[in-house]
Each structure stands twice: as structure tokens, then as C-alpha cells.
């Protein structure tokens, strides 16, 4: 029975993740139970996402092996079609997990306000389960294969895939994740790891301020390149980082060895040569417990692990402090160089940050822009930049207020336009259309005016229909033809009944009910079955859906007889 890791919330720290025991969902159990368990969770953790991406990467490699073998096999059309179907399903799931991971990373880095649809996550996991249980899952799996987490990776894990993961993590500055993946590389395979991957791992250690471990990796890279035919400039650059790491970590003896090699072997390499000479000068002239050397080591350590989003201008200030304390230091020009490089990167970051804020502002996303400004820690940007942020925040507040007032004015103008349109419809006797317009204004700033106007227009409309009914009744009294009399009475009664349906609260309702009684008396006198016949015809029309189309919204259709029973009001003549 195959199992897959369930959706798990992100843990608080890598240490928590290391000690946490994974829980599994039994995909052979009741599907409804599985669905409920998945829905209860929020979002998958990065650990479980990486696990699924890794697993499907393995399945993709297995599919490629089978596909290459199929060239020599005589596959049937059905078998070939199945291979294609499996590839498409596999690719769809792998892409789904990859896109979900990218969305979570963007949300973590606050690059986007994009929300993650939990239903899409659940649907993706259901596809995962279905794939594992299908013929495709059996085709691309082995009898010994199990879905296992990162903490249980076997030494046979594909080295190329691990290197690819490290590459991906490095692009997103996920340094702790790089460390975790590196630990999964079997010891006997470390020598086969590509130099680029080793450098990325060394950089991750450097950014996490693990200088001694970083120096070990860079020493491995330098030694490996020294015995290879790589370009000397590449080797010198790496040797410089290694020497700086030794200095930053306090291993001055090894630092001196590396700087001497740079000076001896590559004296024509300009800036690196000058850097190494100056580094050697401070190592030659200072004791290991020298405050100047200790402070320089600290500056160099922070410079090597510099991240503008995290450090801002702090290293610039540290360099300035060093130069103020040791103006005649042999490495003062190197410190100037560090300061210039860090200042450029910090300015690029800060200006890019403001460009993002300005872009949000241009899109009228003022709240998002102000929230973004709040994410910059005040202690990494200095007073001048803090003032700039405060001024930008004030501008955003003003722009937001102006935009809000502009929208309010536009809404008022639109409401006034609707009101004027409704009044024009009343003037032209199109009462029902006018009532629809005024009804739409009930939940707006025109609510009270609209409510009063609805009452007035309803009365006007009811009186107009009552006059039409009276005209029909008068024509009835002047007509001698029996069939014409019936039609006039039926039409007059219908108009009166519609008044009670369309305008139920109108003040002439009692008069209308009396008019209906009077018309029905005449109908009974002509034909006792005429009222029933008229009601049947009306019901037939309702069944055809015509009355439903023309009825006022939300008003139930009530027959005249039912209305008469509900209201016992004195009869009045039309």
C-alpha cells in the first residue's frame, strides 16, 4: 500500500522540522475521510512540497528510461498511448507542485499579494493520490519503492536531482534549505559533486555566518581547481574568497598562506593582487589579538555574508567606523572598496524597493504600498532614509485620501445621474421603469429620497392604472355586445388586481379592492362562471411564464379573491 505525506503547516524552524515525525494518509481508506483530513489542513510545508517534487522527478527519470527502452520493443498502440497518457499526467502533477512552491516563495518574500487557492491545493493532492493508485503509478514505481521524506532519503538518491535542487534554492536565497539538501548527499559521492554546486553550498554557509565550514568547502574547491586545467582567474577569485573566509573566522595563519599564493602566482591580476597585498600587510603588522585585526575580521565576515534586504546599510556604517578608528590602517583602501561595493548594492536594493512602492501607487494600490514600506527595518537604513520613507508614506496617505474622495464624488455624480433618469421616466409615464431605478438607490446616500419617491411614484402609477380600469368599465356600460362586455370587465378586473400586486402598500388600496368587487358583481350578473374562467386564463398565462417575466421583483402574485379575504374594507364604486 503506497502512502503520501499529508498536507502539513510550515514548522517554526528547521530544527522543529528535523525532530517532527511525518504523518501519512492511507490512500486505501474511505475517500471522504481522506478529503476531510486534507481540507482541515492549511497549506503544505516546504519540506513536503520538496518531497513530492523530488519523488515525481524520480518518476520522470524512470519514464525516460522506459521510453528509451520502448524503441527496441514492439509496443502495441494501446501500450504506446498509455505511455503518453502517463507522461502527461506526471508532467501535470510535477508542474502543479512546482507552481505551488513558486507561489509560496513569492508570498514569503512579499513580492506578491497573490493568494493561494486551497481548493487547487487539495485538487492537486487528489491527482497525486489517483496517479499513485493508477496503472501509471505501478508502471513507474518498483516493488520496493516507498514515498519517503527528506529525513529518510537513501544514499541512492539521484545526485543530479540534488544538485538541481541546490541550484533552485540558491536562486531564491534559501540558504538553510541548501544545507539540508547537501546533507542528503552520500559521503562517497561528495567528490563527484560539481564545482558550481560546491561553491553554492559554500556561499550558503558563508551567508549563514558559518565561516569555518565555508572555508573547508572553498578549500576543497581551490584544491580541486589547482590540480585541474581551469582558468587561473577563476582559481584566484575562489582563493581570495577562501583567504577572506580564513581571516573572517580568525584562522590568520591559513589566510596568510592563501594571500601569499595569490600575490606570488598572479601578480598581474590587478585588483585581486592589490587586495591580497593589503590583506597581507595587516596580517604581517598586527598580532592575532590586535583590536584592529579583530574589528577588520568582523567587517570582512559581515561583508562576505552581506544581503542588502537583511543588512541594508549596516556594513557601510561598520566600514566608516573602522576607517574613523584606524585612519592609517594598511587595509584602509580595502575597506574603502568594501564600503563602495556594499553602498552600491544597498542603494540598488533601496531604489528598487521604492520603484516597487511607486508602481503600486501608480496602480492606486495605496494600502499595499504603505504596508510594503512598513516592512523595512528602521535600524538598517539610517535617519536620512527613514525620513524619505516617512515622506513617501505621507504622500501615499494623501493620495489615498484624494482617491477616496474622488471615488466618492464620482459615486455621487452617478447616483445623481440615476436619480435624474428616474425622474425623467416618471415624467414620461414609465412608472415601473422609474420604480426600478429608485429601488436601486435604496442602499445608497439617496436612500431616504428614493424611499419617499417610490411611495409617490407608486401612488401615481396605481392611480393611472385605476383610471385605465375605470375607462374600461365605462366602455362596458356603453356596450351592448355580450362578448365585448365580458372582455372589458375581465381586462378592467385584471388591471385592478395588478395594482394590488405591483403596489401593495399604496394608499388607494381599499378603493381598488372596492372597485374589484364592483366589477366582479357585473361579471357574475353576466355569467356566474366568468370570474372562474378569467382566473383560469390568468393561471394559464402564469404557467407560460409571461406574468413571471413582467411581475415586479420580489412581489408574489396574489389573486383578487385572496386579497379580498385578507382585507375587509368598505366597497366603493369606480
From TrEMBL:
Positions of the UniProt region annotated as Disordered: 1-21
Protein name: Tetratricopeptide repeat protein
Species annotation: Desulfomarina profundi
Amino acid at each position: 500500500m503506497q502512502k503520501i505525506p499529508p498536507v502539513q503547516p510550515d514548522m517554526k524552524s528547521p530544527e522543529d522540522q528535523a525532530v517532527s515525525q511525518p504523518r501519512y494518509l492511507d490512500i486505501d481508506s474511505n475517500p471522504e475521510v481522506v478529503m476531510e483530513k486534507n481540507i482541515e489542513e492549511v497549506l503544505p510545508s516546504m519540506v513536503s512540497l520538496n518531497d513530492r517534487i523530488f519523488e515525481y522527478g524520480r518518476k520522470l527519470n524512470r519514464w525516460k528510461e522506459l521510453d528509451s527502452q520502448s524503441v527496441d520493443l514492439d509496443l502495441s498502440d494501446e501500450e504506446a498511448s498509455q505511455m503518453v497518457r502517463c507522461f502527461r499526467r506526471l508532467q501535470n502533477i510535477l508542474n502543479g507542485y512546482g507552481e505551488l512552491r513558486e507561489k509560496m516563495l513569492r508570498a514569503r518574500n512579499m513580492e506578491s499579494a497573490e493568494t493561494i487557492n486551497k481548493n487547487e491545493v487539495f485538487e492537486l493532492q487528489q491527482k497525486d493520490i489517483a496517479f499513485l493508485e493508477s496503472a501509471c503509478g505501478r508502471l513507474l514505481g518498483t516493488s520496493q519503492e516507498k514515498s519517503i521524506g527528506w529525513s529518510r532519503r537513501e544514499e541512492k538518491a539521484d545526485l543530479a536531482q540534488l544538485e538541481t535542487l541546490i541550484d533552485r534554492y540558491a536562486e531564491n536565497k534559501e540558504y538553510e534549505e541548501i544545507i539540508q539538501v547537501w546533507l542528503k548527499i552520500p559521503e562517497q559521492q561528495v567528490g563527484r559533486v560539481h564545482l558550481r554546486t560546491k561553491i553554492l553550498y559554500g556561499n550558503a554557509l558563508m551567508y549563514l555566518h558559518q565561516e569555518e565550514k565555508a572555508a573547508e568547502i572553498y578549500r576543497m574547491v581551490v584544491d580541486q581547481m589547482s590540480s585541474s586545467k581551469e582558468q587561473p582567474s577563476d582559481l584566484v577569485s575562489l582563493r581570495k574568497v577562501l583567504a577572506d573566509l580564513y581571516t573572517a573566522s580568525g584562522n590568520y595563519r591559513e589566510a596568510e598562506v592563501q594571500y601569499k599564493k595569490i600575490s606570488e602566482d598572479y601578480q598581474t591580476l590587478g585588483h585581486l593582487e592589490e587586495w591580497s597585498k593589503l590583506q597581507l600587510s595587516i596580517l604581517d603588522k598586527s598580532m592575532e589579538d590586535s583590536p584592529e585585526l579583530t574589528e577588520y575580521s568582523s567587517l570582512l565576515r559581515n561583508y562576505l555574508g552581506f544581503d542588502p534586504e537583511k543588512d541594508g546599510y549596516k556594513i557601510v556604517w561598520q566600514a566608516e567606523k573602522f576607517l574613523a578608528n584606524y585612519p592609517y590602517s594598511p587595509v584602509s583602501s580595502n575597506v574603502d572598496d568594501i564600503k563602495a561595493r556594499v553602498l552600491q548594492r544597498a542603494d540598488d536594493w533601496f531604489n528598487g524597493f521604492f520603484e516597487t512602492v511607486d508602481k503600486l501607487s501608480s496602480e492606486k494600490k495605496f494600502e499595499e504600498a504603505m504596508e510594503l514600506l512598513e516592512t523595512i527595518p528602521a535600524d538598517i537604513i539610517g535617519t536620512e532614509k527613514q525620513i524619505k520613507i516617512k515622506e513617501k508614506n505621507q504622500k501615499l496617505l494623501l493620495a489615498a485620501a484624494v482617491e477616496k474622495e474622488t471615488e466618492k464624488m464620482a459615486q455621487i455624480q452617478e447616483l445623481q445621474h440615476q436619480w435624474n433618469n428616474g425622474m425623467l421616466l416618471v415624467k414620461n409615464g414609465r412608472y415601473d421603469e422609474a420604480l426600478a431605478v429608485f429601488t436601486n438607490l435604496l442602499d445608497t446616500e439617496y436612500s431616504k429620497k428614493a424611499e419617499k419617491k417610490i411611495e409617490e411614484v407608486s401612488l401615481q402609477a396605481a392611480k393611472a392604472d385605476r383610471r385605465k380600469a375605470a375607462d374600461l368599465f365605462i366602455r362596458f356600460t356603453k356596450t351592448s355586445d355580450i362578448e365585448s362586455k365580458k372582455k372589458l370587465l375581465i381586462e378592467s378586473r385584471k388591471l385592478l388586481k395588478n395594482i394590488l400586486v405591483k403596489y401593495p402598500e399604496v394608499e388607494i388600496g381599499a378603493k381598488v379592492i372596492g372597485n374589484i368587487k364592483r366589477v366582479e358583481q357585473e361579471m357574475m350578473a353576466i355569467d356566474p362562471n366568468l370570474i372562474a374562467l378569467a382566473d383560469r386564463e390568468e393561471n394559464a398565462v402564469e404557467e407560460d411564464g409571461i406574468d413571471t417575466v413582467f411581475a415586479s421583483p420580489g412581489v408574489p402574485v396574489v389573486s383578487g379573491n385572496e386579497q379580498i379575504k385578507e382585507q375587509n374594507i368598505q366597497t366603493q364604486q369606480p
